[in-house]
Amino acid sequence: MNLKPLGDRVIVKQDAAEEKTASGLILTSGSKDKPQRGTVLAVGPGKLDKDGNPVALPVKEGDRILFSKYGGNEVVVGQQTFLILRADDIMAVIL
């Protein structure tokens, strides 16, 4: 991956959409919701505080996270699709 996030941005590999429902029904491509979870691939240096010092983000590379449904921007690099989120779009770290 040739991307380096800036500021309080995080690059995420979004999980694949579910192929079946819990009851076993196969979903068509139009009815699949994109998951709101993924794995952090890269983390920016963070926002600057009032004195100009960067404030580290609460996530690190490799963390599994939950993020808001409409947060971030999808980008395609080569054959891969990534999501670039702001730290404010991250709702939780999955433990």
| Main sheet overview | 6 strands, antiparallel
**Overall body shape:** elongated
Strand order of the largest sheet: 6-7-1-2-5-8
Topology pattern, helix = H, strand = E: EEEEEEEE
Q: Structural class of the secondary structure composition?
A: mainly beta
Number of helices: 0
Binned strand content: 35-45%
What does this structure look like?
This protein has a 6-stranded antiparallel β-sheet, with no helix packed on it. With 95 residues, the protein is an all-beta fold. The model has no long low-confidence stretch (mean pLDDT 86). The relative contact order is 0.30. The radius of gyration is 15 Å and the shape is elongated. It starts with 8 loop residues before the first strand and ends with a strand. Strand 6 (73-77) and strand 7 (80-86) form a beta hairpin. 0% of the residues lie in helices and 40% in strands. It is built from no helices and 8 strands.
Task: Using brief descriptors, characterize the structure shown.
two-stranded antiparallel ribbon, 95 residues, mainly beta, six-stranded antiparallel β-sheet, elongated
SSE arrangement:
Blueprint: E1 9-14, E2 37-43, E3 47-48, E4 54-55, E5 64-67, E6 73-77, E7 80-86, E8 90-94
Antiparallel strand pairs: 1-2, 1-7, 2-5, 3-4, 5-8, 6-7
How would you summarize what this structure contains?
With 95 residues, the chain is an all-beta fold. Helix content is 0%, strand content 40%.
